[in-house]
What does this fold into?
Amino acid sequence: MADTSRYDRRTFLGRSASGAAAVALAGVAAPALLGACSSGSSTSTASGATPGVGTGTPRKGGTLTVGLNSEIDGFLPTTNHFDNSGLVYANTVYDSLTAIGADGTAQPYLAQSVTPNADMTVWTVTLRPGVVFHDGSPLTAAVVVANAKALQASPLTGPALSPIASVTATGPLTVQYTTTEPLVAFPYYLATQVGYVVAMAQLSAADASQHPIGTGPFVFGSWVPNDHFTATRNPHYWRSGRPYLDSITYKPIVQDQSRESTLRSGTIDLMVTRDPNAIAHLGSNPGFQQVTDANRQHGQNDVGFIYLNTQVDPLSDLTVRQALAYATDTAQIARLFGAGVLKPISSPYPEGSPYRAPDNGYPVYDLAKARSLVAQAAPRHGGAVKVELATIPDPRLLDVLQALQSMWGQAGVQATVNQIEQVTFISNLALGNFQAYTGDQFDAADPDENYVWWSPTNAAAPGSIALNFARNKDPQMEAALQKGRTNADPTVRAQAYQTVDMLLAQDLPYLWLTTTVWSMTGSQKVQNFDNPTLPSGQPAQGMEAGTFIPTEIWLEA
Amino acid sequence: MGRYIAKRLIQLVAITFILSIGVFMLVHLLPGDPTLAILGPNDTPTARHELLAQLGLNKSLPQQYWTWLTNVFSGNLGKSFLTGQTVANAVAVALPIDLELILFSQVMAIVVAVPLALLAARRPNRVLDRLATTTSFGMLSIPTFVVAVLLVLVFAVQFHAFPATGYVRFSTDPVQNVRSVILPSVALAFGSIAIYYRLLRADLIATMQEDYITMARSKGLSATYVLTRHALRPSSFTLLAGAGISIGSLFTGAFVVEVLFQLPGIGYQLVNAIFARDYLMVQGMALVAAVFYLVINFGVDFLLTVLDPRVRRA
It folds into this structure.
């Protein structure tokens, strides 16, 4: 069962070809800019030790049980939807060609190197020698090419890989990707769903989505959907001495409260959540260690916001969108529903990000101004501004919408609040059959990953499917996004995305609300769950957006 | 008796057939289709068309129904559109959970409710009767999910006596299996205890007013003997009918408890499948649930005929 308590970018990525879209269409990063963005987790604990970072010599053995927030539909990258839980499963049984380092750069992982030509239209991936899949077959360029072709042929991922013109094996361990345009962030995308490599036997199997065969640290054992997933140590893992655990079991427990209770009861050792209340409760408990991605240093996290459909009345009127922005007290929203964990935002880019404009001009809460704008716009909309706010069935989000309804009502906007079942919600977003919907999206290691969501080229008219759900058609936005995606110079990119930030504040296709924070909380015996390394020995990115790498976790005796 | 059973069996088959049509049509009346869940917002017309053909959903509804029905008769309930898991396998995983929950919860309910009703009916309107009646009223008023959360907080979080969530198969570890179903069973039994107690108590009190009971008492038989040997059996018809309905309802109605305790039973799987528009999974699970409900009630009817031969002549 998918986590239906939120609707976010990963859900979109998981549930759409846009998962691959965010890979292939979106963007690219050259080695020169690989250091430009990255992520890191902030941590909190009641004890003195750094939570999630093991001390002493890793101990081999033991079984770790982890509570995840959702269940996925299978393990085949070409056909299944990898949300954060799906990526955790993938990190358990597969390896990706690249991984994100602690400094935010995309680094070789299963690949030994990833190098571009001068104009970044040809990327050469050299694989590590001597790597074998769990079925004993070797990792070769032919396998990687077969994976890439299967991804291209899939209705799920194929459309998104359209910028890749060809994939060919140029040697036993060398693969060449030729693209139709410069793909500067290409290495970043190899760290996502389309970067995992599965064995030929799995690709051709009838039950391919249910029996993963990878090169990863753990070998698939069993999967009972909505109950558990178990994998055991890969004795032939190419990263010598790893993994440390004998086995790992994931339990999808979709209810936040149930997951928290299960951790407290000792039935699971570690859990993932983005429920601010659970994060606050568990963070203050000295019996647990907790890490969060709240103070991420590189890239950008998911953020909470409201999609405003810029192509339907009355939200096609910029004055109305401005009125709503001025009427929205984000500080109050964060206070009421953030449990001290979430913060109000006025930009998708976090503070300190090179892509955040020093002053993007986003409207600051001003009720008088909101009232004035509503009065100004009302005559153009039959004498009253009426807006339908909607979300998926989720008590917390419903509370947020009811608060917004009240705030907007004070400004003279007649807002109604609805809850819509998730499949219909996605359909309405994609087809533009909505006015104002909740969103939780835009997590990215590289800012170009959001190209698909923000590009006017993906803003079809309502009634047609579009990935730019808000349907903002500002031509300046496309120019800025193109500048950012095709230019490897960090300074130029920073300028481009600062322009994007200002255009978003000016056009108001989204009303920014609060940050989104993910956390991992574990018992004291779980060691090193937020301290992965790259094959080079350099630190890798820790937990981010509910996804982690289990290779180097160990348990105290 | 044989004729009665044959008649009921024919009814059972006919109702199942009608139900299968109802389930099939209702599922296809849901807004949206599986391509949305599978392809997501990038559901392009071409990809959607290909996927519909691949799933056999481009055929007419009667054609789809006929294909499904013929497959069901050959034991093939189909495959999940999403996970590729066979529906039969999903049922095989889910069914033992529901059966175990029902067994444990109903045994608990009967074991508590019947003696309590006997005690209360022995001296109606006395302290014990009033206390039990008031308590049962309170038990009926508390939603199951509240009971479940309280049980978890006390017995799992506070005392670590039972796991808060999850299911362990009996074949994996019998002890852990029992531990994993105790709390959800208690949560489910909570409401049943109150219902069974109230039904049986009312019937017992009414039965105790019958002339043959007076006759038994006048012969000097003890109150306990009269209650258990003379009054209990004729007073248990309503209880039995109520139990049949309750057990049938629990088969899918335990959804809330299954979600809270993360038990992937039939109700849990069914609701997930509905949200994902996983048609074959919904149809398969709903059919199994409907057949279970019918079989349980058929069994109850049969028991009633054994307890009271007048029923089969009605």
The longest strand of chain A covers residues 164-171. Chain A touches chain B through 53 residues (CB under 8 Å).
